[in-house]
Specification:
single chain; about 400 residues; Cytochrome p450; 12 strands; globular; binds protoporphyrin IX containing FE
């Protein structure tokens, strides 16, 4: 669907050929707190598109709560209770679990993975570069986050392709390439108590149940074994939902960031030259993730009536924080749609910065993106796209799902 600056943000098809950035550009300029009508399956919602407004609302969890759902979908209380994770709670409830998981993803802890990630990335890139033409999403971008997810969770490598397929079906529940149960095209009522209203949620619950019962062994250093010993995970449903959250959150987001990096390299040979100087390795991950912003928005719910830029937001209204738009706000970023490795401090919002829910896995994601690129750049001379990228059909997750490249290896 062509983006004429007036794309319907409730319609997944508006994103099927890539993000409608003209629409976000216009909204930031003309209508920073815009209203999108409901489309039959969901009530309407507000869109915050400017950097400053998103940052402010994200900080203010007392006014804009995560505790009634974080996606556009309207959930009954029963559905919310069945599917919620700590991401769908506010402080002080949220703080307890966050305190338990924070140390496992701390920057210094994640830095210990550098050697492992480098080895994995080197092997993945070597295998991909045996051919001069290949789908870089499948061969590289998908592989590294998948293997790292296995290490983080402590699950066996042979289970990973299955787990990743299920995670894709959850997070890509509006894309027929990822699920047979496309959420806006068929009746998903039977799965309303499952994550993302998708049957893959039931499969992942069953896998998590096997871990709980000891029928599936997990590594004792992994996050699952460690979280199982905490108070927060005493309830089996809490553990199952936490497991689904990690499978969904820890995988596609990093894949699509790496895929965006390759898309950018294939569009702009100067980036390859710049990276080869070795001067931009500290900057590249955040600049790529800024432009990728794979989880385009998260939702909040207004706790009381308020007014913003002349619009009256009522108690109970859904308010979307469009991180992907804030991260391209021209008042904060010069040449917002261009990859620039010389930005200095990068104040993008792709990780939900400023809020209590700021991404748990951000240090890991940055490391994976940087190392995947380092390993690629040092082995190649040039890279070009053979065809246009293929984008996810989703107004929630944005990513290149297929990108055929031609490379000249050194
Ligand atoms: C480039 C990659 C990634 C991006 C862009 C990303 C984006 C985000 C965003 C925007 C949030 C905030 C959600 C909100 O405000 O409600 C978030 C939260 C979260 N992310 Fe990430 N993420 C990425 C990678 C990862 C990885 C690798 C993991 C785990 C292995 C992870 C786990 C989580 C978890 C558990 C939360 C919820 C935190 C909380 O509610 O306190 N993410 N992520």
């Amino acid at each position: 669907m062509l983006d004429d600056g007036y794309s319907d943000l409730s319609n997944h098809d508006s994103f099927a050929d890539g993000v409608p950035h003209k629409t976000f550009d216009r909204l930031r300029r003309e209508d920073p707190v815009s209203w999108t009508e409901g489309n039959g399956t969901a009530k309407g919602f507000w869109n915050l598109t400017r950097h400053a407004d998103i940052l402010q609302a994200n900080k203010d969890y007392k006014s804009f709560s995560s505790g009634q759902g974080i996606r556009i979908e309207d959930q009954s209380h029963e559905e919310y209770m069945a599917r919620r994770t700590f991401q769908e709670t506010d402080p002080p409830e949220h703080s307890a679990t966050r305190r338990a998981v924070n140390p496992l993803f701390a920057k210094q802890v994640v830095a210990n993975f550098e050697e492992l990630i480098t080895q994995l990335a080197a092997d993945i890139v070597d295998a991909a570069l045996k051919k001069n033409e290949f789908d870089v999403v499948e061969e590289i971008a998908k592989q590294l986050p998948m293997l790292m997810l296995g290490r983080i969770l402590g699950v066996p490598d042979e289970d990973l392709p299955w787990l990743v397929d299920k995670g894709d079906a959850l997070i890509g529940n509006s894309d027929p390439d990822f699920t047979t149960h496309v959420v806006d095209q068929m009746d998903t009522e039977a799965y309303r108590l499952m994550p993302f209203r998708n049957p893959a949620g039931a499969d992942l619950y069953a896998y998590a149940a096997k871990i709980l019962s000891g029928h599936k062994q997990v590594g004792q250093d992994g996050i699952l074994a460690r979280m199982m010993q905490t108070q927060d995970m005493l309830d089996p449903l809490a553990f199952k939902n936490f497991f689904c959250l990690l499978v969904a959150a820890g995988n596609d987001t990093t894949r699509y960031s790496i895929a965006m990096a390759f898309h950018l390299l294939s569009q702009n040979p100067a980036l390859v030259t710049q990276l080869k100087t070795g001067r931009y390795w500290d900057a590249v991950a955040d600049e790529v993730i800024r432009l990728a912003s794979p989880t385009m928005h998260f939702r909040r719910t207004a706790i009381q009536d308020c007014e913003l830029h002349g619009k009256k937001i009522l108690k109970g209204d859904k308010v979307l924080l469009w991180f992907i738009s804030g991260s391209r706000d021209e008042t904060v970023f010069k040449d917002p749609h261009t990859a620039r490795l010389d930005r200095g401090a990068n104040r993008h919002l792709a990780f939900g910065q400023g809020g209590v829910h700021v991404c748990l896995g951000m240090h890991l994601a940055r490391l994976e993106v940087r190392i995947a690129l380092e390993q690629f750049i040092k082995r190649i001379d040039t890279v070009e796209a053979i065809e246009a990228p293929n984008w996810t059909r989703s107004n929630f997750i944005c990513g290149v799902k297929k990108l055929n490249l031609r490379v000249k290896v050194l």
